[in-house]
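Homework help board

Subject: predicted structure for assignment chain

Our instructor gave us this sequence and asked us to write out the predicted structure in token form, then describe one feature. I got the tokens but I'm not sure how to describe them. Can anyone check?
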Amino acid sequence: LLLDLVEPSLSHLTAPSCSAADLVIEVCDTASTGVPLPGGHSATLFRGELLQLSNGQIVAQYLSQLGLLTVLNREEKTAIVWLKDAATFPWNERAATLKYVFHLWFRGEGIQLVHAGAVGVPEGGVLLIGRGGSGKSTTSLACVQAGMVYAGDDYVMCSTTAPITAYSVTNSAKLDAKSVQLLPSFRPMIHHFEEHPPQKGIAFLHPFLPHVLVSQLRISAIVLPKTSAAPQAS
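My token output:
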């Protein structure tokens, strides 16, 4: 179950085994180990960060709504992602289960986790930004359907210095019922999709469209999609 939480969204980034990893991440849950979440997660919080456990070397974050504890040791280049029960971990979070540890690790490397999509052509692309429901996912997958390459839908990592580059962290995309109606070819890829009650399902593109996935994409522009009642995009 723990492997199922992380492997589908990261399968496109599989690399040959190496002797020295930049970061080793261990994923655990209380249900399978019988060990409760490590103590201290009731300590003072600042945007999820556990101030009483964090210092210059260690950063700890606890998200109570998910029962998810992330602890990063920068010096030892190790991280622990601990949750209550892999079987009950929310489906919408499985699109990017490790995004919290990526955020903590890469912010010290000059790279920022961004709530955005990135699509384009191999020579360069655009960053699709906007709040949830603005049409980022639908636009991203419509671009894929039109023949463009895909670095991400909901989250990507972006360099903070020029040239701005988006780095892929997942091959997943989220679609609601309206998106599926507009893009029916993606329906067979979607997991955990129900039209009633309306909720977003997750599509993992790697098993179906590996040729459209890129690990990085140089960004030339930022696009803000906007939903419309018009029959065609403008």
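Reply (TA_rk): Your tokens look well-formed. For the description, you could write something like this. Helices lie at 2-10, 30-33, 99-106, 136-145, 177-182. That's the kind of observation they're looking for.
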